[in-house]
Amino acid sequence: MPKESEFRARLSFLKTEDGGRTSPVQSGYRPTADFGLHEEGKERYNDCVLFFDGDSPVNPGETREARVLPLHPELIEGRVEPHAKFNITEGRRVVARGEVLKPLQS
Prior knowledge:
By secondary structure, this protein is mainly beta. Strand 5 (85-90) and strand 6 (93-103) form a beta hairpin. The protein has one domain (3-103): Translation factors (Elongation Factor Tu (Ef-tu), domain 3), CATH 2.40.30.10. The chain has no helices and six strands.
């Protein structure tokens, strides 16, 4: 997979009482990133792997920067630009809000 598909993002995890997770996550967490709808009306869901800065787990309610590795980058082509907003989901449940900081180049 080309490294150009990776990007840095700021992720704000929802608090448990706001519908977020009940437990922390760590690097290697594999949720889905939701970038909204294609012009054709198809959803831009993409399985991804998150790699967080630091060694400590990310608790519900925390904000942390991470490297995001989309597993099917072709599905979000043209959407990974600075300031682009997306949701981190588990199934249909939103557990975090994200903002692209910058695409990563090799």
